[in-house]
Write a structure and sequence with these properties.
By secondary structure, the chain is mainly beta. About 5% of the residues lie in helices and about 45% in strands.
């Protein structure tokens, strides 16, 4: 578990000889903290940060770009929003373009190539304006980071057959910047995700289906839909880690929840699954591996981030809540609540290391962890930027050291802490950097912060 460190504490512990390598500690210096735009509630079940397995902020050289979401006045849900594209210039954040023709439901993930190409994954509806829901057509829009106001190119992904896409895409968009390649996943109902891979020559050379793990242990065996995944494309290897998202499969718990809520449905987010392929062009993924589960006590699991290193190890971040307290008295009265942020390393499908970065137990004072993301520096150091609630709520930074120890946590001195956020990272094509670009929200304001890691 992490210990919070401040510069004054570092000086004191250095004088006492208790910090072995103080020169290696990097401090997050806040260089910029400002508002990008404001948004309204679309009342359609999504929002600007709903695609949190991907990202809506990217850095291409000196340019930082953000994909935003605007509610279309007078339009009815579900498809009542449109994408926005912002760039930070000398005068601050400026709107470059917005969708003038289409409508969509969800935010649009962003990705970049080193040559300044900027890509938006969009999913415009094909349904009539007065229709609640309907078919959609996935597209990739290409802009230039140097002149994002110029006309953009519309790229139509190629799929295996004619999948029935809708506005509920649950899509994941990943970029391999070094190789100028990309992959797009988009869910089809509760059975599988369609995927398509675009190579460095701009051709969609391989596509297929990622079939969900099978829940044979349930009273009613069924596919376990996997949602909100973190996905990385690296040298044509693909790594995919997401959470179960199905209607409550436990009959007794589901009946009890109906009594509590009056709703006939309640979704399960309790099991973390991982799969991978060493070469996407084979079309073959490895069998699913269950990384974590809170199935026994109706808890909660949420994937946060994934990072594949050059040695083929996969680093995972996720949060857990031990129990659904609504069910405790009736079904597991002796269980204690806890909330935690976890880190694991996976090699060849096996977890070889796991550790809690933050653990908050019931009836103990402390910080409760929230969202978290990796950040990689040019010299290969790996950090975790995360949020904690509690008396000292705010953002924190720790380093994951090569010897598998975790540095003391450093408080990030943001005036407006970010509980919900995206960071520009390598899964979206942004290069490793000593600068952390973060996009978060406060109320209905979407905010940006630039943090420089300094000794």
């Amino acid at each position: 578990m992490h210990r919070l460190l401040t510069p004054a504490m570092l000086l004191a512990t250095t004088l006492c000889g208790t910090v072995a390598r103080p020169a290696e500690i990097l401090w997050p210096v806040v260089e910029v903290e400002e508002e990008v735009y404001r948004y309204d509630n679309a009342n359609n079940g999504a929002g600007p940060f709903w695609c949190f397995g991907s990202t809506c902020i990217a850095r291409a050289g000196d340019d930082v770009l953000v994909s935003g979401l605007e509610v279309i006045k007078g339009a009815k849900p579900l498809n009542n929003t449109r994408w926005l594209l912002y760039k930070r210039g000398a005068a601050g954040w400026e709107l470059q373009q917005k969708d003038e023709k289409g409508r969509t439901r969800e935010p649009c993930p962003i990705g970049v190539f080193p040559d300044g190409s900027v890509f938006l994954s969009v999913n415009p509806t094909l349904a009539p304006v007065d229709q609640y829901a309907g078919p959609a057509q996935p597209q990739i829009l290409r802009f230039s980071s140097r002149s994002p106001r110029d006309p953009f190119e519309t790229i139509i992904p190629q799929w295996d057959g004619s999948p029935t896409f809708t506005e509920h895409s649950y899509r994941s968009f990943a970029i391999d910047a070094a190789n100028r390649e990309m992959i797009l996943f988009q869910n089809i109902g509760y059975t599988h995700a369609e995927w398509t891979f675009r190579d460095r020559d701009g051709k969609w050379i391989r596509r297929g289906k990622l079939v969900w793990p099978w829940g044979a242990e349930y009273t009613k065996p069924q596919p376990i839909r996997v949602c909100y995944p973190s996905v990385q494309l690296k040298n044509r290897a693909v790594y995919f880690c997401g959470v179960s998202d199905i209607v409550e499969p436990n009959d007794a718990w589901r009946a009890y929840k109906v009594k509590l809520t009056g709703q006939q449905w309640d979704y399960d987010f309790r099991r973390l699954f991982f799969t991978w392929t060493t070469d996407i062009t084979t079309g073959q993924f490895q069998p699913w591996v269950e990384i974590a589960s809170r199935e026994k006590t109706a808890g909660w699991v949420l994937p946060c981030d994934l990072r594949a290193d050059d040695a083929g190890r996969v680093h995972l971040l996720w949060t857990e809540r031990a129990i659904d307290v609504r069910l405790r008295k009736q079904f597991f009265p002796d269980e204690k609540q806890s909330e935690s942020l976890h880190y694991a390393i996976v090699e060849n499908g096996k977890v070889v290391h796991r550790q809690a970065i933050v653990l908050a137990r019931e009836e103990e004072s402390g910080e409760t962890p929230g969202r978290a993301q990796f950040h990689q520096t040019p010299d290969g150091r790996l950090f975790v930027f995360f949020y904690v609630s509690g008396k000292s709520a705010g953002n924190r930074l720790v380093e994951l050291r090569p010897d598998r120890t975790i540095s003391p946590a450093v408080a990030v001195p943001l005036k407006t802490p970010m509980a919900t956020f995206f960071a520009a990272g390598v899964r979206g094509g942004s290069p490793p950097s000593n600068v952390i670009d973060v996009l978060g929200e406060s109320g209905r304001a979407v905010r940006y912060a630039r943090l420089r890691l300094a000794k």
